[in-house]
Automatic annotation (TrEMBL):
Protein name as annotated: Mutator family transposase
Family under the similarity heading: Belongs to the transposase mutator family.
Keywords per UniProt: DNA recombination, DNA-binding, Transposable element, Transposition
Annotated transmembrane regions: none
One Pfam family, short name: Transposase_mut
Taxonomic source organism: Pseudonocardia eucalypti
Role summary: Required for the transposition of the insertion element.
Tree of life domain: Bacteria
Amino acid sequence: MNEQARVQTCVIHLIRNSFRIASRRDWDALKKDLKPVYTAATATAAAVALDDLEETWGGRYSAMIRLWRSAWEEFTPFLDYDPEIRRVLCSTNAIESLNARYRKAVRARGHFPTEQAALKCLYLVTRSLDPTGKGQAR
């Protein structure tokens, strides 16, 4: 298989889903034990932290451990980046938001006479993004 794109799961969603499985009274202890998994320096260190998590919580929340193990291949690319970059990459919300804006713009116009017209539409949507919320274009 030719690897041209790296697929990564949203770490925020993994963490949120972990807490949905757990009882609210265990959240503080679970937060402390889960953090070494997604803040590990390497995939090997994260695997060790996940094994420790399973040892502590596996009996009570085996579904949570299965959740992390089933998403492991899509989670580990996240660990290849520096911690500063991880803060940006941990969530796919920005990408999902951009894709939603693209879909809305394309759906509003229906069809395009040329490929260049479609690309211009997407370009204009991208230009109109306002990261500050103050009406400023990038």
